[in-house]
From TrEMBL:
The keyword Oxidoreductase belongs to this UniProt entry's keyword annotation: yes
InterPro entries: KR_dom, NAD(P)-bd_dom_sf, SDR_fam
SUPFAM superfamilies in UniProt: NAD(P)-binding Rossmann-fold domains
Protein name per UniProt: SDR family oxidoreductase
Family classification: Belongs to the short-chain dehydrogenases/reductases (SDR) family.
Keyword field contains Oxidoreductase: yes
Cellular component terms per the entry's GO annotation: membrane
Length: 257
């Protein structure tokens, strides 16, 4: 029996990871801010799949929250075999429209928490010679688009570099780069989604299945959908100056993903 810790487990992509990993027989540590929702989720997954599901309430925008999760990841008597750094959010508006406190909160959750939790987890995993980390980034990492895209670009670069440093240790790291996924993300950020064409939407359960296949194959970056793979291929060939203009216009309409 192995244990997976998922941040932001109560909704969207994190909840899809929890469903899939529980169905595969993994025990879980579920992390988010809403204790009631976490407890309901833990009970439901335990009853349905017979796995153990621990609840860890933590706000990853605070030092105490990050520390609490890092301490759990470092517990050598109850090891965590897979960490999914998934908690995240979007801020509505363009650079300078977003209050600085909200920008800093995003850096704390998307960057500092990911760094500290990955480090706590991989230090313990390296001692055991096995383990995995999935850091949820976004295709927004590949286009110039405000703090959100910049924070996700950091996640991709950091994960690739750490994966290289840990090569041969038995510990795998992968950055997961989804496109638009139907979750609570856009509603929470107050972003409209009416203009996003249907074909751009991904299903969270299919996304997670593809991500876990990519992790098993040893990929360090996963863009788990042919539509977005093709789009990102085009993005790579487009000059960044042109890309900046296009994404700043669409960014106003669609918000980050
Ligand atoms: N949806 C998309 O289109 C999309 C696309 C690409 C990448 N992503 C990325 O995927 C990840 C998950 O997003 P989602 O779409 O699944 O969002 P979601 O449906 O809004 O779920 C977000 C989860 O994160 C938790 N969370 C938020 N802030 C937190 C904090 N400060 N501390 C601890 N937990 C926190 C939430 O629970 P509580 O509120 O209870 O804390 C919830 O469980 C994010 O990193 C996002 O950037 C999303």
């Amino acid at each position: 029996m192995t244990t997976a810790l998922i941040t932001g487990s109560t909704a969207g992509i994190g909840a899809a990871f929890a469903r899939r990993l529980a169905a595969d027989g993994h025990d879980l540590v579920l992390v988010a801010r809403d204790t009631e929702r976490l407890t309901e989720q833990a009970t439901e997954l335990h009853d349905r799949h017979g796995i153990e599901a621990e609840v860890l309430t933590a706000d990853l925008a605070t030092d105490e929250g990050i520390e609490a999760v890092a301490t759990r990841l470092g517990d050598r008597r109850n090891p965590v075999d897979l960490l999914v750094n998934n908690a995240g959010f979007g801020n509505k508006g363009r650079y300078l429209d977003v209050p600085m406190a909200d920008e800093l909160r995003m850096i704390k959750v998307h960057v500092e928490a990911v760094l500290r939790l990955t480090s706590a987890a991989t230090a313990a995993m390296r001692e055991r010679g096995r383990g995995g980390v999935v850091n949820v980034a976004s295709v927004a990492a590949f286009v110039p688009r405000g703090t959100y895209g910049a924070s996700k670009a950091w996640v991709v670069q950091f994960t690739q570099g750490a994966a290289r440093d840990l090569a041969g240790s038995g510990v795998r790291l992968m950055a997961l780069c989804p496109g638009f996924v139907r979750t609570e993300f856009h509603q929470r950020a107050g972003m409209g989604t009416d203009n996003i064409p249907n074909w751009m939407w991904l299903d969270a359960d299919k996304l997670v299945a593809a991500a876990l296949t990519d992790l098993a194959r040893g990929r360090t970056v996963s863009i788990p959908d042919p539509r977005y793979k093709a789009l990102m291929g085009l993005v790579k060939m487009t000059p960044r100056s042109l890309l900046g203009g296009v994404t700043s216009r669409t960014g106003r309409k669609y918000g980050p993903q």
